[in-house]
What does this fold into?
Amino acid sequence: MARRMRGLIIMVIMALVIPLMPISVSPVKALGEWIEIFTQRNEDNSILVEGLAKASSLSIELRDEDEKAFFSATVKVNKDGYYHLVTPAFKEEVFKESRFSKYNYGIGVYVTVPGGAQAATSLPDYRDRYETPSRYEKYREGYQEPVPIKFEQYGVGSQATVFKEPTQLKVVASPVSVAASEVHTLALGKEGQLYGWGKNTNHEINESEMPVLPPTLITTNPKIRKIEAGDKFSLYITTDGELYGWGDLKDLGIKTVTGVPIKITLIDEPIADMNAFNRGVALLTKAGNVYQMGGVGWANEDAREFVHNHYRKILIQDAVAVSMSNHKGYALKKDGTLWGWNNAIVEGQTTKAEQIAGFKDIQKFDAANTNDEYIIAIDKKGELWGYGDNSARQLGQKVPAKLVKPTNLTNMALRYNKETGWSAAGKKLNYTSVSLTVNGVLLLTQNKELLTFNTYPRLGDLNKNVSFIENTSRNIFWISGGKLWVSGYDNAFGQQGMGVKVK
It folds into this structure.
């Protein structure tokens, strides 16, 4: 017997009493007959039962865990072998938790060929789980096969113009910050105007059914103080510490897809700061506590199936900054030490953080993953410290491939000049901000100069008077002289802010 079920159960038996436990998912045939079942609870408390069967009609019966039947019906099987039933709505008390499995309700679904084979399964309980879609949707009346999006018809896709040279984005008046995923971008103006552009297939920009959007005003809220863009979702926090999100929020522990920012209340503390990467978000509260929403979910299949495992408290106090990378989350404590934790989705509501030895007096930092995790940190003197993997040489050729302990990299930063090319930036610079990605590092000095560790990017004089930097694997955004600029190599979804044609 399988330990649990995921909505689709296929089994055929003859003249047996069937317990309300998860049943085999392997197809079985008996006397030339077979039955496949998918079942789920609908929002109105009706129950869907559908599947395929080799029969002309079927009897469907619902029973409680004491084998008492409380509903029955007969359904026709069409020429494709498909059957479909939606029951009337039941009272809430019908949906009791199973005595045998945390994955199911105490309801058995029995499907029988009159005088022949019978199959059964338990009704899955998805109140704290992510639903398994029905494989039989394509058999339903009126079903239309999804048509792949041709982004080229919107001016982007494989035919998109790519803006490799620095190009100004003029739509955002008085820009103050930018947040970018690999496929969509947010920008915040001085008066609280929040803009978004790029991919919108999960409504990570707004409610529009357009799969991509040019720079579009999302909302205006003077209280917005921080924005973040993740994989399929967008976030902002307000000066009051409230957290709002939109797009596909399922990875974050919220079973919602919405194009309108909604208040997220999973964390019952005011939020001071956050950092998003891919499917994960690190959150810092005003009290110095740290939480994680989402995370790496490829492993731990059992854990990631449950919604409550997609948000957790990190066991660390007195934090003042956070960062989220590919496999780990990080926090800076008030005492200047750096801590990290595995950001995998695991069973439970807490995860332990461990100190990263060797860092001291750190004021700011960022982390990313190229071939492995790496960190760049700024200490109270404004000096740079590196740690972790440099096998891709994102920190330059002169830095070892592996930094096994925090190493001073202050004199390794590079400056680009159109006339003289690349040169060492010097030791006496005071660094104030850092932004990491898979391809490299952007550094900001106290003199508002944008520098790097390798020959990326070449900005010329636009690396002066810089107030904000944002780095993705293929594009960079920065604010210089009060203007928003972009440069990079990927505009397939209009994420550079130009090229999208509105139909």
Remarks:
- Confidence is low (pLDDT under 50) at residues 1-31.
- The helical segments are 301-304.
